[in-house]
Write a structure and sequence with these properties.
The protein is α/β, with parallel strands linked by helices. The protein is built from 16 helices and 17 strands. It has three domains: 170 residues, MoaB/Mog-like domain (Molybdenum Cofactor Biosythetic Enzyme, Chain A); 73 residues, 2-Layer Sandwich (Alpha-Beta Plaits), CATH 3.30.70; 154 residues, Maf protein (Alpha-Beta Complex).
């Protein structure tokens, strides 16, 4: 099944708010084996909304829309949809009563603007929104379906997971089993990995598809199986994964669909190790990535954001003469930061960064984007100087990813 996503909001078009909805929705649709052929971002204008819907329906049967369903005057999606599908607005008592309960549970009084959230087109099926006041609306036009959801990410995700995906499968008679296996591979480029797996791909059963999902330093291999016999599909996937283990060996560092922080956490748990971070230019972002994973307290002890040389020296024990002789962005300093983080937090492993994220502060010898990274485990310390080009946020993100993968590599090389 092919679908398109329309996200609505002037704030998206001017860059004030980042569109995370379409990325998440596309990922979830892909897990179902459904193709997203286009993602369109439009303004809150009525004409733009109508034009986007008509254009999408000319190509696909399913359109998923987010945004413009709030109670304020700039939210016009609901009346536009009502007119587009030829209906009239009615007051839905069940939506009103749910919103009353929603407000009462938060000790708030409903105002007139929010009361009007219960007005919906009479040509839609209302899907309750248990975590907000804007109802989710399901429209049918011949064989085509449009689902309008709030732009608030949590509300949209609850609607998609709770009802929308299953309703779509039921509506279109899509009852196939869809199974996935994901392997995370490092030490390979995407093109190099593809060449290594040419023969493997050629012998894949027709019910199995292989996707390459690259990110800096890592390629995720996702095997997707689809059919009406779930047990058979699971067995075939197990066989294909085993073949990949033989072909790629130690280049596979995780067999779950997770983040780099999640992959590192699994390795630490398996080996009963703990980690801390000492961060300068990354400002705690590495610790953030690690602690996004539920249960990370089992292996993450703590972090020091050591921006100043004084904190590097007093808290982490970096020798003053190393700071004076080499500067904060240097191999001796970052290695001492990693060792100091282990000592400070009582861990077996640590990650440390010191660099220049910009946009200012660079020198001819150490331009913006220069980042020293050190990782340690026990008495083994590994460091490298990386050079990233981009915005401050990009440099921080790339340094975070590289630092985590350096510790993964160190831990696996000890096996």
């Amino acid at each position: 099944m092919k679908s398109e996503i329309i996200v609505i909001g002037d704030e998206l078009l001017i860059g004030q708010v980042l569109d995370t909805n379409s990325k998440w929705m596309a990922t979830e649709l892909n897990k179902q084996g459904w193709e997203v052929s286009r993602i369109t971002t439009i303004s809150d204008g009525a004409d733009d909304i109508k034009e986007a819907i008509a254009s999408a329906f000319s190509r696909v049967d399913v359109v998923l829309m987010t945004g413009g369903l709030g109670p304020t005057s700039d939210d016009v999606t609901k009346p536009v949809l009502c007119a587009y599908f030829g209906g009239k607005m009615i007051f839905d008592q069940s939506v009103y009563e749910q919103n009353l309960r929603y407000f009462a549970g938060r000790g708030l009084q409903m105002n007139e603007s929010t009361r009007r959230q219960a007005e919906v087109p009479d040509v839609c099926t209302v899907i309750p929104n248990p975590v907000g006041t804007a109802p989710v609306m399901w429209f049918e036009h011949g064989s085509k379906v449009l689902v309008a959801m709030p732009g608030v990410p949590n509300e949209m995700r609850v609607a998609m997971k709770g009802e929308v995906l299953q309703r779509l499968r039921t509506h279109y008679g899509d009852h196939d089993a869809i199974l996935h296996r994901t392997l995370m591979v490092f030490r390979n480029t995407e093109s190099g990995l593809s060449e290594r797996l040419t023969a493997f791909e050629a012998q894949l059963p027709s019910c199995i598809k292989l996707a390459y999902l690259p990110m800096p330093g890592v390629v995720r291999l996702r095997l997707t199986a689809r059919g009406n016999d779930e047990a058979m599909l699971s067995n075939i996937l197990d066989e294909m994964v085993e073949k990949l283990r033989v072909l790629l060996g130690g280049d596979i560092f995780c067999e779950e669909d997770t983040t780099l922080g999640g992959a590192l956490g699994k390795i630490l748990l398996d080996r009963k190790l703990t980690v801390a971070t000492a961060e300068s230019c990354t400002g705690g972002n590495i610790a953030h990535e690690i602690t996004l994973i539920p249960g990370s307290s089992a292996y993450f002890n703590g972090s020091v954001v050591a921006y100043s040389n004084d904190v590097k020296h007093r808290v982490l024990g970096v020798p003053q003469d190393a700071l004076d002789a080499h500067g904060a962005v240097s191999q001796p300093v970052v290695e001492a930061m990693a060792v100091g983080a282990c000592r400070m937090a009582g861990t077996t492993c640590a990650i440390a960064t010191s660099g220049i994220a910009g946009p200012d502060g660079g020198t001819p010898d150490k331009p913006v984007g220069t980042v020293w990274i050190a990782v340690c485990c026990g008495d083994k310390v590994v460091s490298e100087c990386a050079h990233f080009v981009g915005t401050r946020a990009f440099i921080i993100e790339r340094a975070t990813q590289r630092a985590i993968m350096m510790l993964v590599d160190l831990l696996l090389s000890r096996d």
